[in-house]
Each structure stands twice: as structure tokens, then as C-alpha cells.
């Protein structure tokens, strides 16, 4: 049970930032290249909504992941190399699509 | 005055969080069960990171109304850097919370899966530490350009 909770938590840790950035990319795709006026006039609800939606989606994925029967053969990714790739991806997306 | 103080506290807690996040990343890297000290380290790191993020959320509304316009008017690039910082800060808190729950859930278990989960927690803390360092650097740069008015 505890391992399942832990697995779900790790899925949440990865999924929430990716869900957040995916929404931001969608906003940029819909709105085009950012206009500073749009950011300045923004009522800031966008950030709250983006964060809330990302958390909700990540929680759903975490619950699903915690219910999947785990095993040694199911996840063979190297932890630190995976984290390095994830960090580079998040940094690149946040930097190029602010 | 009050907002400037909170902004300063937010920055200091951010620096503290960037350093603190490295500790559990190092402690958990081999996947060994958590000692009492390691559990304290994991817990306090989560608290410090949450306080930094919470303070940022708390001052965001007045910041948006008072400072953000001036920042974009002064330097558009710096304004976008602030947006980048906002996105990365969310990633830091999500990684920290996930890694903390995972580390505590498997703190004393000695199974191979628990060991692997702790190593993934260490990796998540490492990623959070790197991203937090970038957040701190961007925040410091942006705050050096425009900030809440002096009292």
C-alpha cells in the first residue's frame, strides 16, 4: 500500500509540471506570440486555473498509477538520467515559451 | 513597507529552499531507509519550500498590480523572465511535494521497490533543486530591476 502511494506521488511530481506547461503551450498556440499587454492586463486567474487544472490532472494520473500493479520489470528507467532529461525539458519549455 | 518585507522574506526562503532541496537529494541517492535525521531533513525541506512558494502566492496580486506593469514597461525581456520564474516555481513545488510524500511513504521499508522509489525521490529532489536555483537567480535579477516601492 505504501509503495503504491509513493509511486502515485512520484507520478504526481512529474505529471503536474508537464500538465502545467502543456496548458501554457496551448495558451501560446491559441494566442500567438505573447503580448506583454495581455500579461499585464491578465487578471491572474490564468495562473490559478492553470495550476489547479495541472494539480487535478496529476492527481488523477497519480491515482491511476497507484492502482496499477507494480513490479520490478515495469519501470527500468534510470532515476537520475530521467530526472536530468525532465529538468532540461521543463527548463527549455519554460524559457522558450514563458 | 509590509509588501517589501514579504518580498524580501520570499527571496530569502527561496534561497534557503534551493540549498535545502540538495540535502534530501544527497541523503536518498542510494535508496537506503531514512534515518530519523533524514526524515527531519525531508520534512523541513518541504516546509521551507512551501513557505517560499506560499509567500510568493501571497504577494502575487499586489505585485501584479504595482510592480509587473513597471517591469514590462522598463524591460520586456525581464518581464518574460518573471513569467518563466512563475512556471518553474510551480514545477519546484510539485516535484518537492511528490518526492516528500514518496520518501515518507517508503521511509522504513526495505524492499527493492521501496529502495528504487527512494532513489527516484532523490532524483526528483535534485531536479527541484536545480529548477529552484534557476528560480532564485531569475527572481534576484528581476527584483534588482523593479520591486515594491520603498516606504
Written account of the structure:
The complex is a heterodimer of chains A (98) and B (151). With 98 residues, chain A is an all-alpha fold. Chain A has one domain. Chain A has helices at 2-31, 36-41, 45-67, 79-96. Chain A starts with a helix and ends with a helix. Chain B has 151 residues and is mainly α. Chain B has one domain (2-145). In chain B, 85% of the residues lie in helices and 0% in strands. Chain B has 5 helices and no strands. In chain B, helix 3 (36-74) packs antiparallel against helix 4 and helix 4 packs antiparallel against helix 5. The longest helix of chain B is centred in the middle third of the chain and has 39 residues, at 36-74. The N and C termini of chain B lie close together (5 Å). Chains A and B meet through helix 1, helix 2, helix 3 and helix 4 of A and helix 3, helix 4 and helix 5 of B.
Largest inter-chain interface? A-B, 43 and 48 residues
Please describe the biggest sheet of chain A, giving its number of strands, its sense, and whether it closes into a barrel.
none
- SS element count, helices of chain B: 5
Strand percentage of chain B lies at under 5%
Q: How many domain modules of chain A?
A: 1
DSSP strand count of chain A: 0
Count of DSSP-assigned helices of chain A: 4
Order of helices and strands of chain A: HHHH
Q: What would the principal axes of the Cα set say about the shape of chain B?
A: elongated
Number of strands of chain B: 0
Overall geometry of chain A comes to elongated
Count of domains of chain B: 1
Structural class of chain A: mainly alpha
Helix content of chain B: over 70%
